[in-house]
C-alpha cells in the first residue's frame, strides 16, 4: 500500500467510524419512533371521548380525533425519515465517497478537500461537511472541470476559484482499493473499469463517472422543454434517471417522486431500470408506457392494438394488399397536420356534425338521437360548446327523474316486488327501516312501504343509465371519429385532403372502425377528439415529464402529452437512428418539437460519445447510419464484430449453439440472440432448443432475464447485453432500406461482443461496413 492510499484509508476509517456512530444513534431513534407509532395506533381510541350528543360534544370529538391523527402522522413521518436515513447510512458504509476535489475559492488562500458521495455526511455538530452529496452545487465542479479555473452556481450566486486537483477512488467494503489523480492519469480509468464489467439484471447508477455533457442534462433547470438527442449507448436513460434523483434532491421540500413520470418503451425496460433510484436512496418515479396510458383511457370503448402488433404487421406482412395504405395511414395520423385537422373538426362540431346516442329504458326510447341533436343545436347559442354539453347532461338527468316517477306504478315494478327474494326484500326492508328511524309505527302503511320498494327497484334499474349519462356516453364519439373520414368533411375541412392516397386511408379507417377495431395509429387521435369533445382530463399534479426513446413518439403524441400534463416540464430523450416505428419518416428529427413550447423555452443537448460498446463495435455500428462518423467511441478494446455467412438454417443453428457455448465459457452473463420480429424469434427459439435455459422474450415479458435470451429487436430497445448474436442479417431478412434503423438498434445492444450471421447473401445494409470494421468469414 503506498503512502497516499494509507493516508486515505486512515481518513476513510475515521469517516466509517462517524457513520457507525450515526447509525447507532439513528437505530435508537428509529426504534423509538417505531414504538411511538405502534403506541399511538394501539391506543388511538383510548384517550378519545367519542360523544355526539350535542353539537359541542360532536365538535370536541372531531377536534380530539384530528389531534390524534396529527400526532400519528407526525410520528409516522419522523419514523419514515429516520428509517430512510438509516438505510442510506448503511449503504454508505460500503463506499462512502467516490471522488474528491481540492478547491481554492477566489479571495481565499485555503484549499479545501471536498469529498463527494451518494449522500451528505456531516460531523456530529451538523455544521461541517465530511461528504457532499453528488447533487450539491459544489459537486458539479467534479463533473464539469479538469484542474484549472472553475465556477459553480449556488442559490446565493456564482462562486469562482481554482480546482487544484481531482481524485477518483475505488472503495469496496470500506477499503480504499485504488485512487487516481485525474490530472495525471490518461483517460478515465474508473469509467473504463465500470464499462468493462459484465451486465447484470438491472441498470446501475453512474454517479461516480457522470460525464460533463451528461451533467448538463442532469442539472438543467432552464426552459420548459429539454431535448436530448444522443447516440446509442450515450447514456440518455442513465442521464434521465440521475436527473430525476437530482430534481428530487434540489426540490426536496416541494417535489415528491410521484410528481414525476417517465414514459418508457415497455414493461421489461421498467424492470431493468427500477433499481437506479433506490440505489441512490430515492423512491422511484411513476413509470408508464404510452400503450398502458391509452389502454387505461380507452379500454371501455375499444380493444386498442398495441404498438408492437402494428410493428409486427409491418415487419412481416410487406406483401399484404393493405400494406402501403397502412404505412401511409400511420404516417399521416402521426402528423401535426392531422392534429390540426382534428382541432378544426372539433370546432366545426359547434355548428353541426355532433352525433348522439338515443336514451332507451327497458327497450323503449326515452329520447331519440335526433331529439338530442336538435336540443344541442337549438339551445342558447351564446353558450360555449362544453356548457351546451353540460346542459344536455342536466336535461337528460331530469328526464330520468321524470321516468323514475312515471315507472313507479308500472306493472313490471309490481312484478319485481313480488319476485324479490327473501334476502333482497330483507335488504330493502332494513334500508327502509334505517331511513325512517326505529319508530314503532314505521311500517303501518302498506302503501308507503310499497312505494318505497318500487322506488328502490326503479332507481336500481336506472342506475346504469344515470352513470352512462354522467360519463357523457350519450355522445357517440366513435361515430363522430368515423365521420371525420367522410368525403364531405374531407372536402370541406382537410385542406388539400383529397388525394387518392388520403381517400384510401379514409376508406380503410372507416372499414376498421366498422369492424370494432382501433389501430394503434388511431388511438391517440381518437383520444384527442374524445378529450376535445368531452373536456380535457388534464393531470396537473405531474411537475416533470420525461420521455425516453422519444424517437418512437409521433409529433401528434407529443402535442397530446403537452396538453395532458399542462404543469409539467418535459425532458425528451431519443435517437433518430433508432426510430423503428413506421410513423418515423426518412427525415425524422426533433425539430418539430421546438414548436411545442417555442424556441425560447426549449433547450437542446446532443450526446456524441457512446459508452456502452467497445471501440470495435462502435466502429462497425456507426458505419450503418448516416452521419455515423460523428459518434465517438470510448477507448475500450474488444474483438472486432464478426460476420459469418452460412448456407442453411441447420448450419446457422449449429453455429449459434457453439458460439453461445463459447461465450458462456467466457462468463458473459447476458447473451441475446436478436431477431427481426416476434415471428422470427419464435422460430429461432424452437430451432435452438439445444441451448439450455434459454428464454424467449415476448411482448408481455416483464422481467429482464440474465442468461441467454431470444428477443425481437424492437423489444431489445433501451436494453443492453454483454454479447449479441444477430440471428440472420441476410439480404432476405434485412433487404429493405426501411429496416436500417431496426438493424442498427439491434447491433448497438452489444457491450463486449457482436456476432452477425447471414443465411446466404448478407444484407445490403452491411455494404457500407468496411473490411476494417467487420471481420467477414464464410463457413
Ligand atoms: N457516465 C457514465 N459512466 C458509466 N457508465 C455509463 C455512463 N454513461 C453511460 N454509461 C453506461 O452506458 C450504457 C448505456 O447507457 P444508456 O442505456 O443510458 O444509454 P442510452 O443512450 O439510453 O442508450 P440507447 O439509446 O442505446 O438505449 C449503460 O450501461 C450505462 O450504465
Automatic annotation (TrEMBL):
Coiled coil: none
UniProt entry tagged with the keyword Cell membrane: no
GO CC terms of this entry: cytosol
Swiss-Prot/TrEMBL keywords: ATP-binding, Helicase, Hydrolase, Isomerase, Nucleotide-binding
Classification via InterPro entries: DNA_helicase_UvrD-like_C, DNA_helicase_UvrD/REP, HelD_bacillota, P-loop_NTPase, UvrD-like_ATP-bd, UvrD-like_helicase_C
Domain of life: Bacteria
Pfam family, one: UvrD_C_2
Annotated ranges, domain UvrD-like helicase ATP-binding: 209-614
Claim: Nucleotide-binding is one of the keywords in the record: yes
Ligand binding (ATP): 230-237
Gene3D superfamilies in UniProt: P-loop containing nucleotide triphosphate hydrolases
EC number: 5.6.2.4
GO biological process, one term: recombinational repair
SUPFAM superfamilies in the cross-refs: P-loop containing nucleoside triphosphate hydrolases
First-level EC class: isomerase
GO MF, one annotated term: ATP binding
Chemical reaction(s) catalysed: Couples ATP hydrolysis with the unwinding of duplex DNA by translocating in the 3'-5' direction; ATP + H2O = ADP + phosphate + H(+)
Protein name: DNA 3'-5' helicase
Organism of derivation: Peribacillus simplex
Amino acid at each position: 500500500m503506498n503512502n497516499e492510499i494509507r493516508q486515505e484509508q486512515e481518513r476513510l476509517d475515521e469517516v466509517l467510524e462517524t457513520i457507525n456512530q450515526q447509525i447507532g444513534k439513528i437505530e435508537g431513534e428509529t426504534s423509538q419512533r417505531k414504538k411511538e407509532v405502534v403506541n399511538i395506533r394501539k391506543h388511538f381510541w383510548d384517550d378519545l371521548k367519542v360523544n355526539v350528543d350535542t353539537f359541542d360534544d360532536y365538535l370536541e370529538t372531531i377536534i380530539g380525533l384530528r389531534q390524534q391523527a396529527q400526532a400519528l402522522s407526525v410520528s409516522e413521518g419522523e419514523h419514515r425519515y429516520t428509517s430512510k436515513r438509516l438505510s442510506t447510512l448503511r449503504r454508505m458504509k460500503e463506499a462512502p465517497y467516490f471522488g474528491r476535489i481540492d478547491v481554492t475559492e477566489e479571495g481565499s488562500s485555503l484549499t479545501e478537500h471536498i469529498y463527494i458521495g451518494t449522500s451528505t455526511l456531516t460531523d456530529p455538530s451538523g455544521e461541517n461537511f465530511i461528504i457532499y452529496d453528488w447533487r450539491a452545487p459544489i459537486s458539479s465542479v467534479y463533473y464539469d472541470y479538469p484542474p484549472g479555473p472553475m465556477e459553480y452556481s449556488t442559490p446565493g450566486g456564482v462562486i469562482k476559484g481554482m480546482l487544484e486537483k481531482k481524485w477518483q477512488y475505488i472503495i469496496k467494503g470500506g477499503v480504499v482499493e485504488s485512487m487516481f489523480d485525474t490530472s495525471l492519469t490518461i483517460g478515465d480509468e474508473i469509467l473504463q473499469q465500470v464499462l468493462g464489467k459484465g451486465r447484470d439484471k438491472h441498470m446501475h447508477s453512474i454517479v461516480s463517472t457522470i460525464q460533463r455533457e451528461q451533467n448538463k442534462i442532469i442539472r438543467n433547470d432552464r426552459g420548459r422543454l429539454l431535448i436530448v438527442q444522443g447516440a446509442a449507448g450515450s447514456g440518455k436513460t442513465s442521464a434521465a434517471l440521475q436527473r430525476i434523483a437530482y430534481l428530487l434532491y434540489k426540490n426536496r421540500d416541494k417535489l415528491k417522486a410521484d410528481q414525476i413520470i417517465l414514459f418508457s418503451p415497455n414493461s421489461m425496460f421498467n424492470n431493468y431500470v427500477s433499481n437506479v433510484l433506490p440505489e441512490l436512496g430515492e423512491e422511484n418515479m411513476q413509470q408508464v408506457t404510452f400503450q398502458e396510458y391509452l389502454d387505461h383511457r380507452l379500454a371501455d370503448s375499444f380493444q386498442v392494438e398495441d404498438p408492437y402488433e402494428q410493428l409486427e404487421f409491418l415487419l412481416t406482412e410487406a406483401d399484404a394488399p393493405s400494406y402501403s395504405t397502412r404505412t401511409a395511414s400511420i404516417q399521416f395520423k402521426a402528423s401535426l397536420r392531422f392534429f390540426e385537422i382534428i382541432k378544426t373538426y372539433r370546432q366545426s362540431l359547434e355548428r353541426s356534425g355532433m352525433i348522439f346516442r338515443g336514451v332507451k329504458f327497458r327497450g323503449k326510447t326515452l329520447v331519440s338521437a335526433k331529439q338530442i341533436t336538435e336540443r344541442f343545436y337549438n339551445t342558447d347559442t351564446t353558450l360555449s360548446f362544453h356548457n351546451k354539453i353540460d346542459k344536455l347532461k342536466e336535461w337528460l338527468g331530469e328526464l330520468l327523474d321524470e321516468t323514475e316517477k312515471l315507472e313507479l306504478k308500472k306493472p313490471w315494478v309490481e312484478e319485481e316486488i313480488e319476485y324479490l327474494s327473501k334476502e333482497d326484500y330483507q335488504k330493502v326492508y332494513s334500508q327502509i327501516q334505517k331511513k325512517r328511524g326505529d319508530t314503532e309505527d314505521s311500517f303501518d302503511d302498506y302503501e308507503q312501504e310499497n312505494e318505497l320498494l318500487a322506488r328502490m327497484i326503479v332507481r336500481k334499474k336506472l342506475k346504469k343509465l344515470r352513470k352512462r349519462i354522467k360519463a357523457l356516453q350519450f355522445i357517440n364519439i366513435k361515430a363522430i371519429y368515423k365521420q371525420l373520414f367522410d368525403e364531405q368533411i374531407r372536402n370541406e375541412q382537410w385542406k388539400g385532403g383529397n388525394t387518392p392516397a388520403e381517400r384510401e386511408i379514409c376508406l380503410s379507417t372507416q372499414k376498421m372502425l366498422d369492424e370494432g377495431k382501433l389501430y394503434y395509429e388511431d388511438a391517440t387521435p381518437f383520444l384527442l377528439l374524445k378529450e376535445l369533445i368531452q373536456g380535457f382530463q388534464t393531470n396537473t399534479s405531474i411537475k416533470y415529464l420525461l420521455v425516453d426513446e422519444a424517437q418512437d413518439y409521433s409529433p401528434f403524441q407529443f402535442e397530446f402529452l403537452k396538453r395532458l400534463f399542462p404543469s409539467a416540464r418535459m425532458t425528451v430523450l431519443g435517437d433518430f437512428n433508432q426510430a423503428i416505428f413506421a410513423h418515423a419518416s426518412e427525415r425524422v428529427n426533433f425539430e418539430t418539437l421546438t414548436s411545442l413550447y417555442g424556441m425560447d423555452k426549449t433547450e437542446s443537448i446532443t450526446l456524441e460519445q457512446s459508452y456502452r460498446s467497445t471501440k470495435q463495435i462502435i466502429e462497425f455500428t456507426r458505419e450503418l447510419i448516416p452521419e455515423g462518423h460523428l459518434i465517438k467511441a470510448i477507448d475500450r478494446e474488444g474483438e472486432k464484430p464478426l460476420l459469418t455467412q452460412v448456407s442453411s438454417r441447420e448450419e446457422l443453428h449449429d453455429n449459434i449453439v457453439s458460439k453461445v457455448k463459447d461465450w458462456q465459457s467466457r462468463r458473459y452473463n447476458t447473451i441475446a440472440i436478436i431477431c427481426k420480429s416476434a415471428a422470427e424469434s419464435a422460430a429461432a427459439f424452437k430451432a435452438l432448443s439445444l441451448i439450455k435455459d434459454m428464454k424467449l422474450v415476448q411482448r408481455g415479458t416483464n422481467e429482464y432475464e440474465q442468461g441467454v435470451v431470444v428477443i425481437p429487436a424492437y423489444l431489445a430497445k433501451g436494453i443492453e447485453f454483454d454479447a449479441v448474436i444477430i440471428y440472420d442479417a441476410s439480404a432476405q431478412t434485412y433487404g429493405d432500406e426501411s429496416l436500417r434503423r431496426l438493424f442498427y438498434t439491434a447491433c448497438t445492444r452489444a457491450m463486449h461482443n457482436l456476432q452477425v450471421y447471414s443465411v446466404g447473401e448478407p444484407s445490403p445494409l452491411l455494404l457500407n461496413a468496411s473490411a476494417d470494421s467487420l471481420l467477414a468469414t464464410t463457413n
